[in-house]
Every structure is written in structure tokens, then in C-alpha cells.
TrEMBL record:
It comes from Streptomyces lucensis JCM 4490. Residues 179-212 are annotated as: Disordered. Keywords: Membrane, Transmembrane, Transmembrane helix. Pfam families: Trp_oprn_chp. NCBIfam families: trp_oprn_chp. This is Membrane protein. The chain crosses the membrane at residues 25-43, 70-89, 96-116, 144-164.
Length: 212
């Protein structure tokens, strides 16, 4: 009679963390890179528009995300750099960089939400266009691009959280060089003084190759 045991195989238990590390690494890289790209794209689009009264007529005004606030774009670049730096450090350093990655995502989300209804930039443009410092923009409307930046920040945040949770299972770029440094150096072969080329070298140095 054969008995079936429910004890898991040791190899399957050892392979499970490796699979989790590979999957989380792929997801984190995708989310981080995509989030940074989406955020940078969103900040270059029109976030707000309105009209200013100039010479009795309406003058259209627009503001891009980078005009309203430069924080999301800057933090997207910081997050992208932190995503790359995660693989260059280990242990506590990796946790710090992963935390910076997550905080970059939080900062993008917060800055984009605050700027989503901001019209101060268009008020400044209206004052410049009309020559009246007290002028304000009229018919102010906002687009959905700030919320696209919010989505990009959320992806960066997700990448940071994955790095905090599974970063210890990810490989490090420095490991390859450390392994290479641990390899023993090849020892040079002993020189045979009776070889013809060695005898000629000895003669060139003024030595007696016969040892007499």
C-alpha cells in the first residue's frame, strides 16, 4: 500500500520566494517606468483655460501642467532615478531608496490634486495681457490631465510599495562585480630558464644563461 504525504517538497518551498521576487520585480519596473512616463506626459498638456478681457474683447488663455506646478514632473524624475537606484544598493540602503520611490509617488498625487483646480497662473497671465494687475481670468475651466498625473503618481507609489515589500528578493547590480572580485587570480606560470627565448633574454641582460 502506498501512502501519500502532504508535506511540501523542499525545492518547491525554496522556489516560491524566487517566483514572488521575479513577479514583483517585473510589476514594479513596469509600474515605475509607466508612472513616470504618464506623469511627464500629463504635465506637458493643457490643465486649465479661460479668457481675459483685453481692449473690450475676450483673449483666450491656456496653462500647461508645467506652468501650474513643476512638482509632479520633478518627482517623476526622482522616482525614476530611485527605481534604478534600488538595484545598486542592498539591505538598509534598498529600504531607504524604496521609501523615496514611494514618497515620490505620494508627492505626485498630492501636487496634482492641489493644482487640479488652481487658476492663479491664468490670473497672472490675464493681468499681463490686460496690463491691469487686478485683472482675473474669466470662464475658467480645467481639463482631466491633472488626474492623469494622479494616476501616474499612483503607479509610482505602487512600485515603491512593491520595492518595500519584496525588494529584499530582488537582485543587485553590484553582486556581479562582487562575485568577480572574489575569483582567485590566475598565477603566472614559472619561467623555464632553459627555453631558447629565455636564454636570449638572459644574454640581452648580460647574464650567463648556463649559470657557469
Amino acid at each position: 500500500m502506498e501512502y501519500v504525504t502532504a508535506v511540501p517538497h523542499p525545492r518547491s518551498e525554496a522556489a516560491a520566494p524566487a517566483r514572488s521576487g521575479r513577479r514583483s520585480l517585473a510589476v514594479a519596473l513596469l509600474c515605475g517606468a509607466l508612472g513616470a512616463a504618464v506623469t511627464l506626459l500629463a504635465t506637458r498638456q493643457r490643465w486649465a483655460q479661460g479668457t481675459a478681457t483685453v481692449a473690450g474683447g475676450g483673449f483666450p488663455l491656456t496653462a500647461k501642467g508645467s506652468d501650474v506646478t513643476g512638482v509632479p514632473a520633478a518627482l517623476a524624475i526622482v522616482g525614476l532615478a530611485a527605481l534604478v537606484a534600488v538595484f545598486a544598493v542592498r539591505r538598509a540602503g534598498r529600504l531607504l531608496v524604496a521609501g523615496l520611490l514611494a514618497l515620490s509617488g505620494v508627492g505626485v498625487v498630492a501636487a496634482a490634486l492641489v493644482a487640479a483646480s488652481d487658476g492663479s497662473v491664468l490670473d497672472e497671465k490675464a493681468a499681463q495681457a490686460s496690463g491691469d494687475t487686478s485683472a482675473t481670468v474669466g470662464a475658467l475651466t480645467h481639463t482631466g490631465w491633472p488626474y492623469v498625473a494622479v494616476a501616474g503618481g499612483a503607479l509610482i507609489l505602487l512600485a515603491g510599495l512593491l520595492a518595500l515589500r519584496y525588494g529584499s528578493l530582488w537582485p543587485a547590480m553590484s553582486g556581479r562585480y562582487e562575485r568577480g572580485a572574489d575569483r582567485p587570480r590566475r598565477r603566472s606560470r614559472p619561467v623555464d630558464p632553459e627555453r631558447p627565448e629565455e636564454m636570449w633574454k638572459a644574454l640581452d641582460r648580460g647574464e650567463d644563461p648556463t649559470g657557469a
